[in-house]
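Dear Dr. L.,

I hope this message finds you well. Following up on our conversation about the binding site, I have prepared a predicted three-dimensional model of the protein together with NAI. For your records, I am including the exact sequence and ligand specification that went into the calculation, followed by the structure tokens. Please feel free to forward this to your student if that is useful.
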Amino acid sequence: MSVVTTKMQGDIAVVTIDNPPVNAASQAVRQGLLDALRATEARQPAAVVLICAGRSFVAGADIREFDKPFLEPMLPELLNAIEAATRPWVAAIHGTALGGGCELALACSHRIGAPTAKIGLPEVNLGLIPGAGGTVRLPRLIDPIEAARLAVTGKPVSAAKALELGLFDRLAEGDLLAAAIALAKDAATQPRPEPLLTRAAPKVDRATWDAAMAKLTAKARGQDSPHEAAAALRDALDHDGVTALGLERARFMRLKASPQSAALRYIFFAERAVGKSPRTKDVPPRPLARIGVIGGGTMGAGIAASALLAGLGVQMVERDTDAASAGAARVEGILGGALNRGLISEAKHAAALARFDAASDYATLADADLVIEAVFEDMAVKKQVFAALEQACKPEAVLATNTSYLDVNEIAASVTDPSRVIGLHFFSPAHIMKLLEIVVPEAVADDVLATALHLAKTLRKLPVLAGVCDGFIANRIMSSYRREADYLLEDGALPHEVDAAMRAFGLPMGLFEMQDLAGLDIGWAARKRRAATRPASERYVDIADHICEAGHFGRKTGRGWYLYGPEGTPERNPDVEALIVAESARKGITRQSFTAEQIMTRILGCMQSEGAAILSEGIAASREDIDVTMVNAFGFPRWRGGPMFMQTA
Ligand code: 3HC
Ligand code: NAI
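The resulting structure of the complex is given below.
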């Protein structure tokens, strides 16, 4: 059956695209639309409604076709032909109308949206700009700065916002198709709006425009596409529609061939490929309605809030009633913040709180389907907690640990049934960070793994599977490049030079600034714990230990790698710099200067060799697992794809 079908409903032709999963505008869809256009032009219905089957309107061009030669008919020409149709075309939008899907809707004479629909131009997220008239038609329909906001940030807007902007003519009350047919009938009796392509470009004061674009592109951090989208929008204002369309296409084609777009497309598919295991195919997860969280500190509170926001019930257990109250207050603080920022409604906030309880008694966990332990990072404490869980929980309850580094096999072996134990390593803040490392111990049961993946989906997290080792994927690579950054200090670099090199590379923050923010005491405690087992032959840099010994733990004490004034801006710390120079001398190292590029070559090389070791040991199953982890855990620039992608690209 064709992916595009046309049926008459009275005097209205209803053209339906049915190309699961997201109705991407593949060659078959484009050909089907061209055929439908020809048929409706020949038949001359009063008007045409264009609607999609399944979960969404067209979610964009088919990205899978981008690495192949172009296939006719091409989207821009098809859209020009739809715009030039003699009958009105009404786009009936549900789900998401993104990229080429938004452009298709713009080529129609009218647009109606379901109240839950979203529309936008996310091409920048793939290192592209709209390539089928989006930057040309949109600023001729709505306020050009609002058009630029869509194309430059890539963020879609809600149906209500689209109506307010004039991007939708109407919202559908009730049945979308019926409402679209009503709009089509009205459109058939009214004069046709002038096609967007032939409308005059709106005038925007240059200074206002430049200021708005500077703001919109401020967060691009080395990524070209937002700047290119802003430039394409400018072209659209400076030229007639047809000329601007040619310029947009040329820009799109150039970007499609760029390394940044290749990297962003790679990571788009990598994020959808990870978190799958052949072991869980056809294995149903265990029931998941109420979870337990042990520990109401930074992580426990974030995990509890994340679960509550996803509709689960949460029982928190702390050491004593005071600690339980403090944990509950943390959770309430996070939920209150979400309410104040308008992220959740009053009703959702109240329902989340009603599903939450905090206590000091493990007996409250009797009905929990899965329990996540987030207590101190100490094997003895963790084992005590697991022993208590074994007593308190039903036998089929999954027992998970949020440990950052500890041996999950050892924790599993401490209970009678190790097959129920798994690692669920969340990142801080746990209610915000999307990444979830699922640490798979040797004895884990398939349906426990399936339950962990199901939990990730319920929490809308991005799961990556990791084997058991010190630090799993994320922290193991971080520890290794942290070590390298410490070597760089002894070899001649200063903290601000390392941080500047990392920011220039595209990371949101340098490693030393990040440590100051997190608190130097955490790493210090971990180093002291490991001191006994550290091989004497290992090169060890103790600069951070000296800073901590002096009582300086970073931002929270006003001093760390940097000095922090009342404004909180990091300033170079002369005492630390003197200490670094003295340490080099003490070890007999002749300090040399490094360029930003040399610094990043060492740090990146270290990430890559640790990544290669992780792959060869089977801790990660694919390079995608490592790259998705690095991009989502530590802000490795998406537009570089990830350390492993960079090695092979
Ligand atoms: N082309 C090809 N495949 C696509 C696709 C696209 N545009 N969009 C999504 N898919 C695939 C995904 O790879 C995934 O495949 P899988 O099941 O084999 O892993 C499947 O569709 C479902 O996608 P998600 O898992 O992401 O489903 P969600 O419901 O979470 O999200 C979505 C749906 C919001 C549409 C999200 O997939 C998305 O953001 N897609 C990309 C949208 C986009 O960037 N569009 C612009 C494309 S470029 C363009 O249009 C150029 C034009 O200007 C010329
Ligand atoms: P935290 O110190 O903020 O919280 C730990 C909480 O556990 C405290 O509230 C404490 O009262 C409670 N607790 C201790 N023993 C307990 C017991 N026997 N029963 C019940 N509650 C008990 O620590 P944080 O940062 O939340 O870390 C918790 C775990 O999460 C650690 O294993 C850590 O390695 C891991 N983790 C931490 C991340 C972070 O960025 N902070 C990131 C990912 C994992």
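In brief: The chain has three domains: 4-217, 278-466, 474-618.

With kind regards,
A. P.
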